Amino acid sequence: MKRDEKRQQAEALRQDLEQAKGVVLSGFEGLTVAQETELRRRIAQAGAKYKVVKNSLIERAAQGTPVEPIATKLRGTTSVAYTQTDPVTLAKALTAYAKENPLLVFKAGMVEGRVVSLAEFNALATLPSRDVLLSQVASLANAPARRLASAVAALARNLALVLQQAVKEGKFKEA
Predict the structure, then answer these.
(1) Distance of alpha carbon 175 from its chain centroid, rounded?
(2) pLDDT, tens digit (0-9, with 9 covering 90-100), for 85-141
(3) SS3 83
(4) CATH fit for domain 3-127, picks 3.40.50.150, 3.30.420.310, 3.90.780.10, 3.30.70.1730
(5) Are 95 and 122 in contact (CB under 8 A)?
(6) pTM for the structure as a whole
(7) What does the alpha-carbon distance between residue 109 and residue 58 come to, in Å, rounded to a whole number?
(8) Which residues fall within 8 angstroms of residue 36, CB to CB, at 6 or more apart?
(9) What's the Cα-to-Cα distance from 61 to each of 10, 50, 82, 144, rounded to whole Å?
């Protein structure tokens, strides 16, 4: 590969990594072509991208980006999976695949500009998606107003029931 082509590849990867909300570097040594194709399919379904690149290209592309701390001193075969949308979805896809195929090895990860360990990455995979979390927050914010409306409605309903019972028992006298 010519030097100019390498520079273009590094620049394209740099642009992707600068915008990425989640990046995972992994080793895939020993995976068959079919297994790697399945991994690519799952990552694409998660709305992420997956590339196998040389360690030197990752290091060069990561310079000056938030990914730089995790892209140093890489050894062996390395692949990079990244997403510009929801890092939780990517984490779930990779974790599920790694459980089925232990040859996929987590090397390093970054979520929202923060380096994460394997344990943090696994914890991230257990979180609900961003949309579910947002709906839960909205529900919690809406809960006090809902309780107040329910209490006011219950008060009116209870008053109506008491008045109805009083009328049945003849508690009111006609004027």
Answers:
(1) 70
(2) 888 888 888 888 988 888 888 888 888 888 888 788 777 777 777 777 778 778 778
(3) strand
(4) 3.30.70.1730
(5) yes
(6) 0.68
(7) 13
(8) 28, 52
(9) 5, 15, 13, 49
